[in-house]
Design a protein that fits this description.
single chain; alpha+beta; 6-stranded antiparallel beta sheet; 5-stranded antiparallel beta sheet; 3 helices; 11 strands; binds FE2/S2 (inorganic) cluster
């Protein structure tokens, strides 16, 4: 029917790649923000790889593009500038340090809370960088802030 065909074309549009900048610029500046089909995205270039995530932190909507990147257990993580939550760039997992109360003298271990921040696909073609939105249907915590700030975009990085 008509309704479902409209939905399908909207979904198709949402899954089309959007150019977010020049490869050279991104490699130089290390990050950028962009609106991809009305979703606020941050793209990082770190250790020779591009990563794209929802820009607002899943915890309370903090600006991830203003955070620092740290390697934790060999995984590149963005540290949210608001409350220091750690999110893996590649998978969007929230990491936390678990302490065993029975052995408090042991150093705490990093554990995953699971995927909390939606990550998106980055491709490079002819010197341009493109982001394709994630098509994972299950809801992910960062969807709440992505929806809430849908038509806004951080203007500067
Ligand atoms: Fe990111 Fe709280 S908003 S850690």
């Amino acid at each position: 029917n008509e309704e479902s065909s409209v939905k399908t074309s909207k979904e198709k549009e949402r899954s089309s790649p959007v150019c977010v900048g020049r490869e050279d610029d991104l490699k130089k500046n290390k990050k950028t923000t962009a609106s991809v089909h009305d979703r606020e995205i941050v793209v990082f270039y770190h250790n020779g790889r591009f990563y794209a995530l929802d820009c607002r932190c899943y915890h309370a909507g903090g600006p991830l593009h203003l955070g620092e990147i740290e390697d934790i257990n060999g995984q590149a993580c963005i540290i949210c500038p608001w409350h220091k939550y750690k999110i893996t760039l590649a998978t969007g997992e929230g990491l936390y340090q678990a302490v065993n109360p029975r052995e408090p003298s042991l150093s705490p271990k990093w554990r995953s809370k699971g995927v909390k921040q939606r990550t998106h696909t980055v491709t490079v073609e002819n010197g341009n960088v493109y982001v394709t939105l994630s098509d994972v249907v299950d809801s992910i915590d960062s969807d709440y802030y992505a929806e809430k700030f849908k038509n806004m975009i951080y203007s500067t990085v």
